[in-house]
Write the structure tokens for this entry.
Amino acid sequence: MDYSPSAKELSHFPFLKKSQDHIKKSFPPLDQLLKEERGVFLTGLAVRRINQALASKKTISAHFQHRDDEEIASYVLARIIVSCIQDKQLYDRLARYEAERAYYFLNAETGSESEKGWNEHAILDEDQNSRIARYLAGEFGLDLSKDRMPLADYVEIVSVLHEDRFKLVNRRVRAGQVMIRKDELLELLRERIRVMLRRDLPYHVPKAICQQLAPVAETIKKEYQQHMLEQFGTIDESAFPPCMQALISALTSGVNLTHAGRFSLTTFVHTIGMDVPAIAELYARSPDFDPEKTMYQVEHITGRGGSGTEYTAPACAAMLTTGLCVHKDALCEKVNHPLSYYRARKRDLVKAGKAGKNAPSATSAPPSGPAKTPSGEAGPVKPRADKTGPEKAGSKGPQEPGS
């Protein structure tokens, strides 16, 4: 007997193709919907969804207080809104949040002693997988009955998982297939969902729709700005990851950085709050330093130039590929992004009462070595007040500063 997910099941997994089909006839065209009262209501649900994705502590409930088609529509609208904002960090967080929700719903489907299940019609197979779980996995190219996965798929899925058990060196590989334990399948499905949902962002949203959503988008940007300021606070170079300390040390020594090195350093210090003049000053000791050209190129990378595109600080995988991942320490093994290292290290320094003692000023000289701090006596740099988020999408490659 063919299985077709119910409306309730579709609402819990709104990214399924059938979920999108389910609401096609429920709502008018988007430009018209946004002018209606229910459009305002759905926008509110979408904003709540985005705010949950940005929150450090997330609240996920499997029992909805609104209609199934409204839940699906809020998912679509949330993705449209972040596409209008054009911030890669928002894309990443929303995709991760939706994947986490799906994972929670799969585990909470039949309930537990402490919580009632959300799907009273769930039927489990001998492996304790429900019909919607098998259907969902199939749409994302996974078979929950199999104990193996193609190597290329596995590597992509586990790229952000840091547990030793997921490292390829600790897995059995046979004929291009990675062996998988049954109790790991839903975890890998969660990560597969995250990868695929992130790959689809941003949507190509008509300019007129983005203009209609502009007030909502601006509110989200301001809230995200505040979130980032609370997260990073004042700049503290003693919390910099080894890769960034090495780049600053090279600059101080009069070494010309590679294109990748200059881009990585610029995007990193920009994200944590250093303003354009201070970033340009980092390159003052570069042998080929050109003040005017450096300022222009830094403004280009940080989104203050003509394009308005704010580029992304590269993740650890990209740093490794370009040969910039150096002097790794124990904390490096636990994170996948220099910003994650900085955030964690700064939190540890705050707990130890050492944060801010070696913070660079906006006008201080770069450090003379990886473990040293700037020589300036001014106070720590305050994060930029105009910051709207660390990463924005852009297709054109950046120019390197200082050359």
